[in-house]
Specification:
Its EC number is 2.3.1.258. One of its GO terms (biological process) is mitotic sister chromatid cohesion. InterPro entries: Acyl_CoA_acyltransferase, GNAT_dom, N-term/lysine_N-AcTrnsfr. Keywords: Acyltransferase, Cytoplasm, Transferase. It is built from 6 helices and 9 strands. The chain has one domain: Aminopeptidase. 28% of the residues are buried. It has a 9-stranded mixed sheet, sandwiched between helices.
Length: 197
């Protein structure tokens, strides 16, 4: 595993799944996606998201480099973030295609760690106007998470999802400027970043 490692002694959750982890030392890391763990990402996405992704989606991710990271909790793949750059309307933006964590491992800071990674990509690249993504309109958990990190609903995409009800999605965006790309996300989870490179 590479890139970011964090350690937390998790002890403030009331959820029964989290109680199992509460007395353990939890090590969370972000690692590279490669051909040997691509199947793990497919299974993970199937378990987290109500949509399926085609083979071209996964093939393209193998070439994405830093734009796709797997999230590990004590060496187990439990989440992932996958992004791409988008050039439209004379703006350079980063689109979060997927960012998710298995429900048993939520509230440990993995989502915030992955979002921090995305912000660092924008900082390194420079000249990125914003980060944006779509969220199903009834996904209150995801909406609350992104709003906590300064994302705003900017529009509603009608019939965005073909096989889901409700089929509409909110388009969320976090605008960036030189000062914003240099700030770091401050999380409310008991998280200590050990290696941020």
């Amino acid at each position: 595993m590479t890139n970011i490692t964090a350690i937390t002694n998790y002890d403030n959750s009331s959820d029964k799944n989290q109680k199992k982890l509460k007395s353990k030392r939890v090590i969370i890391e972000l690692g590279e996606l490669h051909q040997h763990n691509l199947k793990q990402l497919k299974v993970l996405n199937r378990d987290i998201f109500p949509v399926s992704y085609n083979e071209k989606f996964y093939k393209d991710l193998l070439e994405a480099g830093e734009l796709c990271k797997l999230a590990y909790c004590n060496d187990i793949v439990v989440g992932a973030v996958c992004c791409r750059f988008d050039l439209s309307d004379n703006r350079r933006r980063l689109y979060i295609m997927t960012l998710g964590v298995l429900s048993k491992y939520r509230e440990l800071g993995l989502g915030a760690l992955m979002l921090e990674h995305v912000l660092k990509i924008c900082e390194k690249e420079g000249n990125v106007d914003s980060i944006y993504l779509h969220v199903q309109i009834n996904n209150e958990t995801a909406l609350a998470f992104y709003k906590k990190f300064a994302f705003e609903i900017i529009s509603t995409a009608t019939d965005y999802y073909r096989r889901l009800e409700p089929s509409d999605a909110y388009l969320l965006e976090r605008k960036l400027n030189k000062s914003l790309t240099n700030e770091h996300i401050s999380t409310t989870s008991p998280l200590t970043v050990i290696n941020g490179n």
